[in-house]
Write a structure and sequence with these properties.
Elements lengths: L4 H10 L10 H23 L6 H9 L7 E5 L2 E4 H19 L6 E5 L4 H12 L3 E5 L5 H10 L4 E4 L9 H6 L4 E4 L2 H8 L19 E7 L7 E6 H15 L6 E4 L6 H14 L2 E4 L8 H7 L4 E5 H9 L20 E5 L3 H11 L3 E7 L6 E6 L9 E2 L2 H10 E4 L26 E6 L4 H4 L7 H6 L1 E3 L7 E11 L4 E7 L3 E4 L2 E4 H9 L4 E9 L8 E8 L5 H14 L8 E4 L16 H6 L10 E6 L2 E4 L2 H8 L6
Helix pairs in contact: 1-2, 1-14, 2-9, 3-4, 4-5, 9-10, 12-13
Bound molecules: 2-acetamido-2-deoxy-beta-D-glucopyranose (6 copies).
Length: 629
C-alpha cells in the first residue's frame, strides 16, 4: 500500500471544500485519517532508526499499561505482551548462538500456524535477520524452488509438515542446513537467557527494506518471493487497524495461513500496531472455526471468500445439552477479509449475525490496496468503496484500462501506442500507479528482476508513466464502488491460491503422451474461484491406464490446488493460438465444462486419484449444488 504524502495531504485539505458534498464524506475522513497516521508512523520510525517491528512489541512489553494485556492466544495457550517478548528474546539468542544467524540473513520457515510461528519470526527480527515464509503445503519442485530463491542460511521446519521435506528435497537443497523445530529444540529455546540483542544488529534498515519474503504466484511460472517491506508491514497494519476501528480490547481471530500476507500484514501486524489480542487457529476447518471463535471470545474474524462459503455450507451447530442453535452465539462484531462474493455476503451476515463486513482487495506485491466497509447492502459485494474525495486521490493512483481480448494484455492504440481507460462502470484491468521514483521504492520480487519488470507497464496513458499490473478485471462505478470480476488469463484462483497456468501446462507437457496442453480456469456453479481445466492433445489412444497416469503425473509435480480438476480432450483444440503464438484461452474459458458447449470434445474430471468421464449428469449435479469440489 502506498499513498504518497504529496497526494494525500492536499486531498485531505481539499476535503474542506467538500464539506457539503452529497456522499461519502465521513467515509473519506476515515480513509484519509488512517492513511496519514500510517504514513506518519512509518516516517517517524525511519527517522529514529527503528523501522524494525521488533520495537513495537518491545514497547508494548515494557509499557506498564500494556505489558499484561494478552498478545497471543493459540489453542489452550495464552501469552501476554511481556511473555511474548521474553519468548522472542529467547528465540533471538538461541538462533544466533546455535545457527550463527547474522543480521540480514534470511531464514526460511516452513510452518503451520502457531504461537511459535510468531516467536520465531520476531526472534529473527530481534537479531536483524529476516524470515521467508514457505507455504507448508508445498512439496517437490515448487518447495525446492521457493526455498532456494530466498538463498537462506537455514530452513526451519515445523515437525507437523516434516514429511514434505523428504530426502529428495534435502538432496536438491544441497548443503543448506535444515532443522526440525522439535519439542527438544523448543526446550532448548525455553532454557535460553532472554537477553536483549543490541540495537546495532537491527540498525540501518529503511522502510523499504525487507521485513519478510512472502511467496505469491504471479502471472507466470512458479511462486515468486515478494518483498514485504517494513513500510508495508507498518502502514498496512496501522491502516487496517485504524480503518477497522480496532480497540485494544479487541480479539482478532484468524486461521488463515500466516505464510500469506493477509494473515500477517492485516492480522498479526494490525493487532500489534493497535495493541489488541491476536488469536490464531492452526488451520481452517468448519469443525473448529466457531468453536475457536467462542473459545477465544473473538470480536473480529478474518476470512477469505472460500471460508464463508464453507461455513455457510455446514448445518447449524446445535448445543447437545440445551438444544440451542449456536450460530449466533459469539461476540464477533466484524468479519474482515477478501474474496467474499456478492451472493453470500448478505447470507453470511444474516445467519451468523455479524454486524460489519469489511472487504479489502490488494495484492501482496501491489503498491496499494482498496477498501470498503459496510453495514448495509448498498456496497455489498464491492471490493472497494470510496467517497468523493478519496476518489480524487484514487483517480491518480489507479487506471482501469481496456484490454486486448486475444492477448490478455492492455489494449494499445495502433497509432499512438497508448492504452485507454474504460468508462466508469465498465470492466477493465486494474493498474496501480507506481510512485515517481519507483525504481527505488517499488520492492517487487526478491532475486527476480525479470518477474518484477514483467508486472510493470509503462507509457500507458501518457509518456513516462508507470503502472503495476494487477492482472485483475474490475469495474468502478460512479458511486465509487469497485467490483472484482475476474482474473486475467495466465493465472486463476482456486481454493484461495493463485494457480499459474504455464506451470501446470509445463508439467502436463512433460508427460510422454501429451502433445500440447492449454490450461485455464473455469467457473463452476456454486463454487468460488475457478477450477483448473487442461485442454490437451494426446499422442496415443486414451484408456484408463493413461488417465490414471496423467492424474499421478500432475499430482507428483504440482501443489494439490494446482492439479487440473478437468481435462478436455479433442482434436485441433490446442492449435488455437493467437498471432503472437500465445495460446488462446478466451473461448475455452467461456465454454467451460458445460458438456453442451464443448462440441465433440470429451471431458474428464478428477475422482479418487484418476480422471473419469464427465457427462451431462455430472454437470447437472454441479448445477444443483450436489457436488462440492
Ligand atoms: C483521526 O484519528 C484520531 C486518532 O485515532 C482521532 O482522534 C480522530 O478523531 C480521527 N479523525 C477523524 C476525522 O476520524
Ligand atoms: C503506554 O501505553 C499507553 C496506552 O497505550 C499509552 O497511552 C502511553 O503513552 C504509553 N507510555 C509510554 C511511555 O509509551
Ligand atoms: C503484570 O503481571 C505481573 C506478573 O503476573 C505482575 O507481577 C505485575 O504486577 C503486573 N503488572 C501490572 C502493571 O499489572
Ligand atoms: C495442506 O496441508 C494440510 C495439512 O498438511 C491439508 O489438510 C490440506 O488439505 C492441504 N491443502 C491443500 C490445498 O493442499
Ligand atoms: C467476551 O467479550 C465480551 C465483550 O466483547 C465481554 O463482555 C465478555 O465478558 C467476554 N467473555 C469472556 C468469557 O471473556
Ligand atoms: C465504516 C464505513 O465507512 N462504513 C460505510 C460503508 O459504506 C456504507 C455504504 O455507503 C456506509 O453506509 C457505511 O457507513
Amino acid at each position: 500500500m502506498f499513498v504518497p504524502l504529496g497526494v494525500a495531504v492536499p486531498a485531505a485539505a481539499a476535503g474542506l471544500a467538500y464539506l457539503n458534498a452529497k456522499t461519502g464524506f465521513w467515509y473519506d475522513k476515515v480513509m484519509i485519517n488512517g492513511t496519514l497516521r500510517a504514513i506518519f508512523r512509518h516516517l517517524r520510525r525511519e527517522r529514529n532508526d527503528r523501522v524494525n517491528t521488533f520495537y513495537v512489541l518491545e514497547e508494548a512489553a515494557k509499557n506498564k499499561s500494556t505489558r499484561n494485556r494478552t498478545h497471543i492466544l493459540f489453542e489452550d495457550k495464552s501469552w501476554t505482551y511481556a511473555q511474548s517478548y521474553e519468548m522472542v528474546l529467547k528465540y533471538g539468542n538461541w538462533l544466533q548462538k546455535k545457527f550463527d544467524i547474522k543480521p540480514k540473513d534470511i531464514v526460511a520457515m516452513d510452518f503451520q500456524n502457531s504461537d511459535h510461528f510468531i516467536f520465531v519470526c520476531f526472534g529473527l527480527w530481534s537479531i536483524g535477520a529476516k524470515p521467508a515464509f514457505i507455504n507448508y503445503n508445498l512439496t517437490g519442485e515448487a518447495l525446492v524452488h521457493c526455498v532456494s530463491t530466498a538463498k537462506p542460511t537455514l530452513l526451519l521446519v515445523d515437525p507437523v509438515v516434516a514429511a514434505n521435506v523428504d530426502d529428495s528435497i534435502r538432496e536438491k537443497l544441497g548443503d543448506l542446513r535444515i532443522e526440525l523445530l522439535t519439542e527438544d529444540l523448543k526446550a532448548e529455546v525455553l532454557a535460553t537467557e532472554p537477553v536483549r540483542p543490541p540495537d546495532a544488529l537491527r540498525s540501518g534498515d529503511l522502510a523499504r527494506d525487507i521485513a519478510i519474503l512472502i511467496y505469491t504466484s504471479g502471472t507466470t511460472g512458479l511462486p515468486k518471493a515478494a518483498i514485504v517491506s517494513w513500510g508495508k508491514l507498518t502502514t498496512g497494519g496501522t491502516f487496517v487497524g485504524k480503518w477497522l476501528g480496532t480497540k485494544p480490547s479487541d480479539i482478532f481471530y484468524t486461521c488463515m495461513p500466516l505464510y500469506h500476507s493477509s494473515a500477517t500484514v492485516m492480522g498479526m501486524s494490525s493487532c500489534l500496531e493497535m495493541g489488541c489480542t491476536f488469536a490464531i487457529g492452526r488451520k481452517f476447518s468448519t469443525k473448529t472455526f466457531w468453536k475457536e471463535v467462542r473459545q477465544h471470545n473473538a470480536t473480529m474474524i478474518q476470512y477469505v471468500g472460500e471460508t464463508c462459503r464453507y461455513l455457510l455450507a455446514v448445518p447449524p451447530e446445535i448445543d447437545p445439552v440445551t438444544g440451542e442453535n449456536m450460530d449466533k452465539k459469539h461476540n464477533v462484531r466484524l468479519a474482515f477479509g477478501n474474496g467474499l462474493r456478492p451472493d453470500i455476503w448478505e447470507r453470511f451476515r444474516d445467519r451468523f449475525n455479524v454486524e460489519t463486513i469489511a472487504e479489502f482487495y490488494g495484492a501482496t506485491e501491489g503498491t496499494q490496496a482498496m477498501w470498503n466497509i459496510t453495514r448495509n447492502a448498498f456496497a455489498s459485494g464491492a471490493i472497494g468503496r470510496s467517497g468523493l474525495i478519496y476518489q480524487q486521490v484514487l483517480k491518480k493512483q489507479i487506471a482501469i484500462v481496456e484490454r486486448d481480448q486475444e492477448t490478455d494484455v492492455p489494449w494499445r492504440h495502433p497509432k499512438t501506442g497508448f492504452g485507454r481507460q474504460v468508462k466508469r462502470g465498465d470492466v477493465g484491468e486494474l493498474l496501480l500507479a507506481l510512485p515517481a521514483d519507483w525504481e527505488k521504492d517499488f520492492q517487487g520480487y526478491y532475486n527476480n528482476k525479470k518477474a518484477t519488470q514483467s508486472k510493470i507497464i509503462r507509457d500507458v496513458l501518457k509518456k513516462g508513466d508507470g503502472y503495476f499490473r494487477t492482472g485483475d478485471l474490475v469495474s468502478w462505478d460512479t458511486e465509487g464502488r469497485m467490483y472484482f470480476h475476474d482474473r486475467i488469463g495466465d493465472t486463476f484462483r482456486w481454493k484461495s491460491e493463485n494457480v499459474a497456468t504455464t506451470e501446470v501446462s509445463e508439467s502436463l507437457g512433460a508427460h510422454p503422451a501429451v502433445g500440447h496442453a492449454n490450461v485455464y480456469g473455469v467457473q463452476l456453479p456454486n463454487h468460488d474461484g475457478r477450477a483448473g481445466c487442461a485442454a490437451i492433445s494426446l499422442s496415443r489412444n486414451l484408456d484408463d491406464a493413461l488417465l490414471r497416469s496423467l492424474a499421478e503425473h500432475t499430482r507428483d509435480r504440482l501443489p494439490k490446488y494446482a492439479v487440473p480438476i478437468f481435462l478436455r480432450v479433442g482434436n485441433g483444440l490446442t492449435a488455437a493460438v493467437t498471432g503472437t503464438l500465445k495460446q488462446q484461452k478466451h473461448d475455452l474459458r467461456l465454454q467451460g465444462v458445460d458438456p453442451g458447449r464443448v462440441g465433440d470434445d470429451e471431458l474428464f474430471w478428477l475422482k479418487d486419484g484418476t480422471y473419469v468421464k464427465f457427462g451431462q449428469r455430472d454437470w447437472d449435479r454441479l448445477n444443483a449444488g450436489q457436488v462440492k469440489l
